[in-house]
Amino acid sequence: MVLKPTRAGLTRAAKLLRSGGVIAFPTDTVYGLGAAADDEVACRRIFAIKGRPVGLPLILMAAAESQLEGWVHVDSRAEEFIRRFWPGPLTVILHAKGGGTLGVRIPKHEVTLELLRAAGPLMTTSANLHGKEPAMNAGEAAALSGVAAILDGGPAPGGVASSVLDLTGPEPHVLREGAISTAHLLGPPPPRAG
């Protein structure tokens, strides 16, 4: 089922997510697969759809920093990166509230943000079979079987996966250079205007 990013389409997508469905949707980088963050069965379904090894973690995507409460510890260092790069193509690895770590991200894509506002935080990954190129549009995402719906927001504008920055150790560590270069991530912040 293909849904348009209208109010009705977003409401339907949110209902499907809340009832355990996995949907494909556009982000600022590539098309993603998402399931309600608090639904373990639906999150496991993502792994089955992708053929993804179970040991590879999913990323928590949220519409606002307030949606991260209860999931991760945001310290002052994380806050600095969040202020500089969110919303945007940066996944930050933080200490999870229940122990362990969790990657979190707020994307810069209005359709995604509307979906996250309607459905709440989602556990996500790129929309593709494991090891293959990520879907860049709804048609490519439709090739995955087991998806409850595809939210068609047009072509994904980025084309490059998010950068992944681990902030759980003593020093920030780039795990994956993506849409934001390592030099830009770890370099000095730009001077403040004013």
Describe this structure in a few short sentences.
By secondary structure, the chain is an alpha/beta fold. Helices cover about 25% and strands about 20% of the residues. Strands 1-8-2-3-7-4-6-5-9-10 form a ten-stranded mixed sheet, sandwiched between helices.
Give an account of the 3D structure.
This protein is α/β, with parallel strands linked by helices and 194 residues long. It has one domain: DHBP synthase. Helix content is 27%, strand content 22%. It has 6 helices and 10 strands; from the N terminus they run βαββαβαββαβαβββα. Strands 1-8-2-3-7-4-6-5-9-10 form a 10-stranded mixed sheet, with helices on both faces. A hairpin with a 5-residue loop joins β5 (90-95) and β6 (101-105). α1 crosses α4 (110-119). The longest helix is centred in the first third of the chain and has 12 residues, at 7-18. The mean pLDDT is 94.
Class computed from helices, strands and strand pairing: alpha/beta
Oligomer type: single chain
Categorize the overall geometry.
Answer: globular
Query: What fraction, in percent, of the residue positions are helical?
Result: 25-40%
Order of H and E elements? EHEEHEHEEHEHEEEH
Number of domains: 1
- Fold-level CATH name: DHBP synthase
Order the strands across the largest sheet as they lie in space.
1-8-2-3-7-4-6-5-9-10
CATH class: Alpha Beta
- Low-confidence runs: none
Can you identify the CATH superfamily?
Answer: DHBP synthase
State Rg. Answer: 16 Å
Mean pLDDT: 94
* Proportion of strand residues: 15-25%
Number of strands: 10
Characterize the largest beta sheet: strand count, sense, and whether it forms a barrel: 10 strands, mixed
- What's the helix count? 6
- The CATH architecture designation is Alpha-Beta Complex
Distance between the termini: 49 Å
